[in-house]
Write a structure and sequence with these properties.
By secondary structure, the chain is mainly alpha-helical. The chain is built from 18 helices and 2 strands. Helix 10 crosses helix 16, helix 10 crosses helix 18 and helix 14 packs across helix 15. The structure holds phenylalanine.
Length: about 450
């Protein structure tokens, strides 16, 4: 395995690796079902506001922090402060990554099942109810999903062993553009379906009465989740950035691409949801029961289905790699293990967690905390609590505990970049992001009522 402090080779590679982390199941699986459950367009509007006002500044903050410290995300905070609270923010991120991988690997594994079904020809000639019934019986079964989950862990592990440049960069460079292209092609088809106008109306015509504290929390959580924020991922990736990387521009590009993919996923899914009479509110299975209906109707549907799920699997892997890299870098550097050993420890831990998460949809479904099974609990705790909290603490830290000149220097590459918003950025870190995230939390706790 290559040295964990080697740097990304090209600017394009940097952007693609960061986009690779951001774009994944969060955009194509999680975004449509969260939008479906939270009122469609009402959710979308708040989501966009969250990306612009919270997401982009936090993304820049993580990149600034990463390049400034050049180390794993846990040590990054310790290196800069001895404050009992802030020095531990990095650990929160590492823990979030472990928990995210727990359920993320399971869903990523589902894409393999669908590739398999596409190849074996079982994805044709079924009604929408049958597709749904098939999926529901698949996820609760104790064997097949586990097999795919473990395969996913093994693949991620192997890519991690390839190192930063060879593994991640090379993989991300061609997978992401391909996925984007295929999504566009499928969207064109989807908007020609008979239910397209109802679907697009659901996604783009807001009904403001649907906005509740839960919708706002969900949209905020989705923004952080989708941009891979609050878990130290972008800190870790930026620790490999060169000194001349333009952080504001990179962050904005990543956010833009990530949001476009989520939009495309919405435009792909909702017309089909309304055409085939699927409930938009049905939750985590939404994409998996909707897409097969589209593919079943297309000429060469199974080829397209295979290509789509393959690219989705790859997009999940580039996200998984980024999560894995955070934890591996931490374990290797903190416990003085070789990268190889550290990666193995991490992969084994994830395998155990992921198996439990997968089983929690079936045989272990009765074990619940706060009414949620383990799978849902991990999703909820990470996206809706840990990631916004991690982001809030990071912004507070940079805004209040680090000298302003240091931040301005880092974000402008020591004055070589002219960026008019540099001072605004500091204000966002100090006040806007922390206050807004705190308000959403307080609102969710019902303290305003
Ligand atoms: N952003 C990734 C996605 O949308 C998920 C992720 C979350 C990756 C947090 C890294 C850290 O799929």
């Amino acid at each position: 395995m290559s040295d964990s402090r080697t740097q990304f080779k090209s600017k394009f590679g940097i952007i693609m690796a960061s986009v690779g982390s951001a774009v994944g199941l969060g955009n194509i699986w999680r975004f449509p079902y969260e939008a479906g459950q939270n009122g469609g367009a009402a959710f979308l509007i708040i989501y966009i506001v969250c990306v612009l006002v919270l997401g982009i500044p936090t993304l820049m903050a993580e990149m600034t922090m990463g390049r400034m410290t050049q180390t794993n995300s846990a040590r990054a905070f310790r290196k800069m402060t001895q404050s009992p609270v802030f020095s531990k923010v990095g650990y929160l991120g590492v823990l979030a990554c472990v928990l995210i991988m727990g359920f993320y690997t399971v869903v990523a594994g589902w894409t393999f099942e669908y590739m398999w079904e596409a190849v074996s020809g079982t994805m044709t000639d079924l009604s929408a109810e049958q597709f749904t019934a098939n999926f529901n019986s698949f996820v609760v079964s104790p064997f097949r999903p586990l097999f795919w989950t473990i395969l996913m862990v093994v693949l991620t592990h192997l890519i991690i062993l390839g190192g930063v440049q060879k593994g991640i960069e090379r993989a991300a460079k061609w997978m992401m553009p391909m996925l984007f292209l295929l999504l566009v092609v499928l969207c064109v088809y989807s908007v020609m379906l008979p239910g397209a106008s109802a679907g697009l109306e659901f996604l783009f015509k807001p009904d403001f009465s649907k906005i509740t504290s839960e919708v706002v929390l969900s949209a905020m959580g989705q923004a952080f989740f989708s941009l891979s924020l609050g878990a130290g991922v972008m800190i870790t990736y930026a620790s490999y950035f060169d000194n001349d990387v333009n952080i504001p521009r990179t962050a904005t590009t990543v956010a833009l691409l990530d949001t476009s993919v989520a939009f495309l996923a919405g435009i792909l899914i909702f017309p089909a949801v309304f055409t085939f009479g699927i409930e938009p509110t049905q939750g985590p299975n939404l994409v998996f029961v909707t897409l097969p209906n589209i593919f079943a109707q297309l000429p060469m549907g199974s080829v397209l289905a295979f290509a789509f799920f393959l690219l989705l699997a790859l997009a999940s892997i580039t996200s998984l790699i980024s999560l894995h890299q955070v934890v591996t870098a931490y374990v290797a550097e903190e416990f003085k293990l070789s990268n190889r050993k550290a990666a193995l420890v991490v992969s084994c831990t994830i395998a155990v967690l992921a198996v439990l998460c997968s089983l929690s949809l079936g045989v272990l479904n009765d074990i619940r905390v706060g009414g949620l099974c383990m799978f849902d609990l991990m999703d909820y705790v990470t996206a809706k609590i840990m990631m916004p909290l991690g982001s809030l603490l990071l912004c507070l830290f940079l805004g209040w505990k680090v000298e302003k000149s240091k931040i301005l220097n880092e974000i402008t590459n020591y004055g070589t970049l002219r960026w008019r918003l540099a001072k605004t950025f500091v204000v966002m870190l100090k006040y806007v992001v922390p206050i807004l995230v705190a308000l959403v939390f307080i609102n969710e706790l019902g303290l305003f009522e």
